[in-house]
TrEMBL record:
<comment type="subunit">
    <text>Monomer.</text>
</comment>
<comment type="pathway">
    <text>Amino-acid biosynthesis; L-cysteine biosynthesis; L-cysteine from L-homocysteine and L-serine: step 1/2.</text>
</comment>
<dbReference type="GO" id="GO:0030170">
    <property type="term" value="F:pyridoxal phosphate binding"/>
</dbReference>
<dbReference type="GO" id="GO:0019344">
    <property type="term" value="P:cysteine biosynthetic process"/>
</dbReference>
<feature type="domain" description="Tryptophan synthase beta chain-like PALP">
    <location>
        <begin position="37"/>
        <end position="335"/>
    </location>
</feature>
<keyword id="KW-0663">Pyridoxal phosphate</keyword>
<comment type="similarity">
    <text>Belongs to the cysteine synthase/cystathionine beta-synthase family.</text>
</comment>
<dbReference type="GO" id="GO:0004122">
    <property type="term" value="F:cystathionine beta-synthase activity"/>
</dbReference>
<protein>
    <recommendedName>
        <fullName>cystathionine beta-synthase</fullName>
        <ecNumber>4.2.1.22</ecNumber>
    </recommendedName>
</protein>
Length: 358
């Protein structure tokens, strides 16, 4: 997929985009909100108290709790931004009440779009591979969306994949639009102009040495990396991509099944700019889920599987770089426990997959 419009960098390292207007960052947090959509963004950074030391890491590790967004994930931000762009510009299609929003997703963008559609009066059809949790589907159904499941094995270019089925539905349904998180500039832009600004603002005068982000569409890592490199000289951005996905390098691994939801792909989305990612770690399911369970049980951080993944490989990187105890590390936790109650939270689910140590 090709990104609509073009990102350009000036001589001072600042990024602009050819076709999207930028929102100004406003750090104020109003106490009373007009709609629940105003409870998207401005999520807290929390310092981990126990886990880093337990794993032999002495530097300060801060986690950005994106599960505290209104719909429960960081993808609420991009859903809201893509809708706002379509409402204002008519791109990639006109949005007025009654129009059907169709989106292929691993679920969290679907929840964000379902939430916004419920509030704004759009119809919503979400197309999602079978692998993704029942909890996500139920959340979207309760918001009034229609959910269609596709086979996990269908490659991105198959007519049976979540992308293929979405394209067919758009051609069949009048007044429908795919906002297309894989190439919509609003995806990385939401993180460039909002998530990354929040991190820089909230860290105040503390330096940031390392930022660790998982990648699916790559919108998070691309948007945050662009802004953080503009504002924090010398920072390192590490992307995390599961074994079985090609995002970290097309020839690095074969496409194979993994359980962590929302990360990795069998194609390179237009929203991922690998040039702005400093380095990659390749992740495994077991380590990711064990760390997610540890974040919940020892820090009270009610996060999802990709969050555990990001924290595990962040700690590995701290050790590899031998970061001093004065160093500050920021890790983004994309979603929360609600999406996985019958999956990695359930011991029998973990045992069936040999993810729990005896
Ligand atoms: N973790 C989870 C749980 C997600 O749903 C997503 C979104 N696909 C990501 C990580 C990765 O975010 P991005 O699409 O911005 O790369």
């Amino acid at each position: 997929t090709k990104l609509a419009g073009e990102w350009k960098q000036d001589d001072n390292g600042k990024w602009t985009h050819s076709s999207v207007e930028f929102n100004k960052f406003n750090p104020e947090r109003p106490l009373v909100l007009d709609t629940v959509l105003d409870a998207i963004g401005k999520t807290p950074l929390v310092k981990l108290q126990h886990i880093p030391k337990k794993h032999g890491v002495n530097c300060n590790v801060y986690v950005k709790c994106e599960y505290l967004n209104a719909g429960g994930s960081t993808k609420d931000r991009i859903a809201q931004r893509m809708i706002e762009i379509a409402e204002k510009t008519g791109k990639p299609g006109k949005l007025v009440p009654g129009v059907t929003v169709i989106e292929p997703t691993s679920g969290n963008t679907g929840i964000g779009l379902s939430l916004a559609s419920a509030v704004k009066g759009y119809k919503c059809i979400i197309v999602m591979p079978k692998k993704m949790s029942k909890e996500k589907a139920l959340a979207m159904e309760s918001l009034g969306s229609t959910i269609i499941r596709t086979p996990n094995e269908a490659g991105f270019d198959s007519p049976h994949s979540h992308i293929g089925v979405s394209l067919r539905l758009r051609s069949e349904i009048q007044d429908s639009v795919i906002l297309d998180q894989y190439c919509n500039p609003g995806n990385p832009l939401a993180h460039y102009e909002q998530t990354a600004e929040e991190i820089v603002y909230d860290m105040g005068d503390k330096n940031i040495d390392l930022v660790v982000l998982t990648a699916g569409t790559g919108g998070t890592v691309t948007g945050i990396s662009r802004k953080i490199h503009e504002k924090v000289p010398g920072v390192k951005v590490l992307g995390v991509d599961p074994h079985g996905s090609i995002l970290a390098g097309p020839n690095e691994t074969d496409i194979e099944f993994y359980e962590v939801e929302g990360i990795g792909y069998d194609f390179l989305p237009g929203t991922l700019d690998t040039k702005v990612v400093d380095d990659w770690a390749k992740s495994h399911d077991k380590e990711s889920f064990l760390m997610a369970r540890e974040l919940i049980s020892t820090e009270g951080i009610l996060c999802g599987g990709s969050a555990g993944c990001a924290v595990h490989y962040a700690l590995e990187e701290c050790k590899k770089l031998n970061l001093p105890d004065t160093a500050n590390v920021v890790v983004l936790l994309p979603d929360g426990i609600r999406n996985y109650l019958t999956k990695f939270l359930d011991e029998s689910w973990m045992n069936e997959r040999h993810f729990l140590d005896a």
